[in-house]
Amino acid sequence: MERSVVLVKPDGLQRGLIGEILHRFERKGLKLVGLKMVSLSDVLLDEWYIHHKDRPFFPSLKSYMQSYPVIAMLWEGLEATSAIRKMIGVTKSRDAEPGTIRGDFGMSQQYNLIHASEDSVNADKESSLIFKNDEIFMWDKMDLSSIYVEEERNR
Ligand code: CMP
After folding, report:
1. Which domain holds residue 76?
2. Which residue, 19, 93, 124, 141, is most buried by CB atoms nearer than 10 A?
3. Ligand 1 atom index nearest CA of 91
4. Residue 53 to residues 60, 125, 127: CA-CA distances in angstroms?
């Protein structure tokens, strides 16, 4: 199974979308293994968005991500990073497909409500930046046998 970090960004918090977003991932069949509200530090954001550090929007992105707290979630599932990326939609919300989170609730490129890890390498890095070991929970999700066939459950 793979893990993916999701952040409900400050605009998602202001728009009252935490429950909606959490509900979508729960109903999808993903397993929640970490959840907290956090204010993102300068140091964390420099590392988190290191690949954007030379982009003109970087200062504005950082101040937006620090404008209010974010909700950090760690979800687990088979090929979870790609499944979640499909559910959130493309970066520019007004171009995102209906049915995706950005497509259903957003219009902006910057205020795009939600972040999700790009791939499993990135997810591991983001998870260690935001969650301490004792904030990640191993628990038996009792409906996994209805969500996956046995061969999938063992991957
Ligand atoms: P995300 O793809 O999750 O991570 C990088 C973020 O930078 C992106 O979401 C947007 O919030 C923001 N972003 C991307 N492109 C632009 C842009 N052209 N102008 C402003 N913000 C952007």
Report:
1. 2-39+70-153
2. 93
3. 2
4. 11, 17, 20
CATH of the domain at 30: 3.30.70.141
What distance in angstroms lies between residue 93's CA and the mean position of ligand 1's atoms? Answer: 10
- Give nearest CA residue, ligand 1 atom 2: 91
pLDDT in tens, the chain (155 residues): 999 999 999 999 999 999 999 999 999 999 999 999 999 999 999 999 999 999 999 999 999 999 999 999 999 999 999 999 999 999 999 999 999 999 999 999 999 999 999 999 999 999 999 999 999 999 999 999 999 999 999 99
Neighbours of 20 (CB within 10 A): 15
Testing ligand 1's pocket by substitution, the residue of 66, 81, 88, 112 carrying the most ligand atoms inside 8 A of its CB is 112
pTM: 0.97
Q: Is the CB of 109 under 6 A from ligand 1?
A: yes
Catalytic residues: 115
